[in-house]
Amino acid sequence: MLSRPRPSPLHTVVHGRALRQAQRSNSVQDQPQPLVVLMEDDLIHTPESPFCSDTTCPCREDPLLLAELDQQVTDGLLTPDEATAIVLGKTL
Asked: Exposed site from 2, 6, 21, 81, fewest CB < 10 Å?
């Protein structure tokens, strides 16, 4: 009967590390992935919401809209961070 050679300690460490990495990658694959929702609606600009979330939309560069926001910051109605969020379309 032939005996199998014992694995070296280095082989055991490398194999164990590879096994742990494989187990981690399998656990990530088993988790549900987020859904990507594509927006196909027309962009909506209203007096209440003049800025949209589209980074290529010219609403972000409209001097009249930006002046209105600047005035609201000056009047203390908005903080500069709030005004920035509005221009970036990050408000509800």
From this structure: 2
Specify the pLDDT at position 13: 46
CA distance 61 to 64: 9
Dihedral, 22, 27, 30, 36 alpha carbons, nearest 10: -100
Q: State how far the alpha carbon of 8 is from the alpha carbons of 1, 5, 13, 15, 17, in Å.
A: 21, 9, 9, 11, 14
Domain boundaries along the sequence of the chain: 58-87
pTM above 0.85, yes or no: no
How many residues would you count in the chain? 92
